[in-house]
Amino acid sequence: MTDWQSHDIYYQFGNIGSEIGRAMKWKGINVSRAEGAAERALELLDWSLSDANNRPFLKEIARIREVFTDSFYSDNQYGETTKSWDAYFLPYALAANR
């Protein structure tokens, strides 16, 4: 976890977005792959929540965790899709690679 905390929010969100994308891609196709990616996404979100450097982003991170959990494990009351998750996280992934 300490290595995770050495990275900025762009890197963290880029990686979280990759795992969420994998989870959504495999949902309904390969349960074990989807669940593995979902668990990794939640673990990364939890690490980001515990990162003191992310204090200004805590509400956003917590909300992402809530909405992802709903969209993957529950009835998707927020109406998120693989496409909407990708659109949200792509700018972070691009910023992390600059």
Automatic annotation (TrEMBL):
Full protein name: Uncharacterized protein
